[in-house]
Structure formats: structure tokens, C-alpha cells
Amino acid sequence: xxxxxxATPLTMGFFLLLAVTGVAMFFHIETPLNKLLHEWLxxxxxxxxxxxxxxxxxxxxxxxxxxxxxxxxxxxxxILLASFMLPTPGAGPVPVRAALGSLAQAPISTLAxxxxxxxxxxxxxxxxxxxxxxxxxxxxxxxxxxVQAALGLLALAYxxxxx
Length: 163
Prior knowledge:
It is a single chain. This protein is mainly α. The chain contains 9 helices and no strands. The chain has helices at 3-26, 32-55, 57-63, 67-85, 95-105, 108-115, 119-127, 139-142, 147-157. α5 (95-105) packs across α9 and α6 (108-115) packs across α7. The longest helix is centred in the first third of the chain and has 24 residues, at 3-26. The two termini are 46 Å apart.
């Protein structure tokens, strides 16, 4: 069976599946299977679109010489770049990030209690890189306010569980 016989129908089928699951997710009526299908079939759609584009590369290259097509593609690329670089106005912090930030700002004694360990044990783990750390300090205090570095220290309070 040739690539031409399945590339376009597969592209259309995967697009339909992703469109329906994406709309369901937008309206918060998705199921765990919908979300799983949406995420994984997105990769299948990329492969199908790649095959479709390969088969239609000559007409596509002619099409992309048109000013309107170039403008639309340029706008799409600009929007994509902006989505990675610009903050979203009015959006609060992501809950997980806010929770981790709170842990980084909490006193080490409180952090140890939340992690189910003794403050002295946590302080001894921190002593290697932060000698003189005190229970009333936070991880952010130890890192000079560098929240990213403080979040890295959380692994000392919450080590990975042994298998």
C-alpha cells in the first residue's frame, strides 16, 4: 500500500479525534482516556501530516510563495513564540508552582514537619552546602532569594522513594 493511499485519510482522522478531544478538554468535559488520546494521538497526527506534506511538497512550495500564505504562516509563528515568552495578563500562578514557592519560603522547621522528618535531620542534609543553616531560615533565605535554587533544595526534604 502506498503512502498516498493512507496519508491524507490518516491526517483527517487524527485531526477529527484531536479536534473533538480538544474541544471536550476546553469545556472541561474530558475523560482520562480523552486526555490520553489527545496527548498521544497528537504525535500520530504529526507523523500523518509530515507524510501528507511530503506527498504534496510541490504544490505546498508553490503555495508558500504567495504573500498571503507567508503572512499567515509568519503570524502563526509569531503567536507561537509569544505564547512561550509573554506572561498571561491576569493569570495567577500555577497552583503547583505556588505551592512549591510556599515551601521554599517556609521556615526549615516547618518544611521538615511537612516532609515528615526531624528538623535536625534536614538541617544536617543542608549543612554540606549551607553550613550554619538554622531552623527559622527558609530555603529561599539560604539561596539568597533564588527561588529556583531553593526549589532544587526541596529534594533534600523530599528525597525520591526507594523502589
